[in-house]
Amino acid sequence: MTIKPIGVLIVDDEYPIREELRAFPWAACDAVLIGEAENGEEALALCEKHAPDIVVTDITMPIMDGLTFIRELRKNHPVTQIILLTCHSDFEYARKAIALGASDYILKVSLDEEELKRALQKARETLLRDRGHLGREILSRRLKAARRLETRLKEHRALPGRERLPVQADRTGLSAKSDLSGEDWTLLGFPDEHQPLRFVLLRLTAPEDELRIAQDATLESLLAYERRTPTCKAWFPMRDGEYAVWLSEAEEPEEVRLRLERLLGALLAEAESRETPLIEEQAIALSVTVGGLARSRADVWALLEAASWWREADFYDDAPSPRIKMGPPKPLSELEPAHRRHLSGLLGQAGMNADRLMRTMQGDVAPWCAERRFRPAALKRWLAAWTSEWLARSRPGHSDPAIELSGASDWGELESRFAGLVRSAPEAGPRREIVEARSWIQAHLQEPLSLPIVAQRIGLGPAYFGRLFKEETGESVHQLVLRLRMEKALKLLRETDMKVYEVAEAVGIPNYRYFTSTFRNWAGAAPTDVKRLGYQAERSGDERENRT
Known about the structure:
Blueprint: E1 6-11, H1 15-22, E2 31-37, H2 40-50, E3 54-58, H3 66-76, E4 81-86, H4 91-99, E5 104-107, H5 113-157, H6 174-177, H7 182-187, E6 197-205, H8 211-228, E7 232-237, E8 242-248, H9 253-273, E9 285-294, H10 297-313, E10 324-326, H11 337-348, H12 354-372, H13 376-394, H14 401-406, H15 411-422, H16 432-443, H17 451-458, H18 462-473, H19 477-495, H20 500-506, H21 512-523, H22 527-547
Parallel strand pairs: 1-2, 1-3, 3-4, 4-5, 9-10
Antiparallel strand pairs: 6-8, 6-9, 7-8
Helix pairs in contact: 2-3, 8-9, 11-12, 12-15, 13-15, 15-18, 16-17, 17-18, 19-21, 19-22
């Protein structure tokens, strides 16, 4: 994880002291001065605004003294480190402050750079340790509370006769019958009394073999974002790579948008800092949907319940959707018997010809369904039943298409899975799509390669093609690309006089640092070592030939 410069706040009522500290070389200590205050009251306001990592504070100050300030600071910022500035006469105060959790103290009369540098380093080490322990503890407790909340939501969804419309707070029936404990509500960001909070749904998608790395990066970034951003009051994971984030109410939607752009930037930076190929190969996707305001716990239930409608509404977004969506989702409609008959008529015109059936699916069925926006679950169930009958006429004993089609997350993937089913007559040897993909990857190793890029070349949806490729070959597209690139790099390092950075570019990994790290993990040795040993072996062989 990338360690950012620590933010430092100065609190002292004496201007000369603040001026001296202002001139301290903070950057040399990997720190940045984010503000200064003359008393504890001003300092608390700045802490709520900037969430400093370390506070350097005097003890004896007007309006609010240092001890009171430390007590108040600890309520909302338990891991913020405190370095005391004190005089000999303040020693008893300093002892009390240390008891309250101050990490160190410095005598004003002997204040010098080296002493402050040592105090900063000690505070930094304590900060990182405490954040790790506290972050893991908070995350563990919050995950358990979130699971209990999801259980209550599932109980509500199973109630008979529930309306299939975005629920309103006054008719969820949740808060009265299935409420959580007060401790759970506090963990999730909703104590007994709180200001209105803005609900934001963060959605993460990544290839199956990279999902764990992406989720770890997301959790780390959300913890850091909550710690550094006072407007982020809480967040917790939901299901299927979704996270509920709660922001303090913003006056203008544009303010919310700017906050979320910063959040997405932090998430991507965290994934990139882990030296994964997620960013380089565009395999990770992050988006957020901005929901309504929660003014009460009943509103929380309603907004979380409505999140499932956003998930469904995105099913028909065939064009690249914006990273940040504002406002309510587009409405969906029910799949009525008349609609089923019309769809049967459209698909039936293609007869048993798979190519004609796909042309009908893409040219007639897709735009007709997208215009009416049928509920995805009902549409997938109907299409699975129709496909099962069609396959029974051409290939008795086929597998159940419902399993295949139900996993489609959007229309493009549904279309790809449908194509795979209708074109799945037994063939000798590997499937044509797999052979074509392997050949194309081998010929384009120097270019940017990713699952979406290869799938588009083959003409299938990324999710479906990725699963199909792994089933057929036993390795993912990413694993194949990595193996072919590393094998080619090994050959070039051993058999040519190309420099390491030239080899990296030749195999499609122009980032020298990432190439070196990846090659070492794959080969067990650095590329420079492989190159050196390869040439030593070559020279030894030449010498033997010359002697003979």
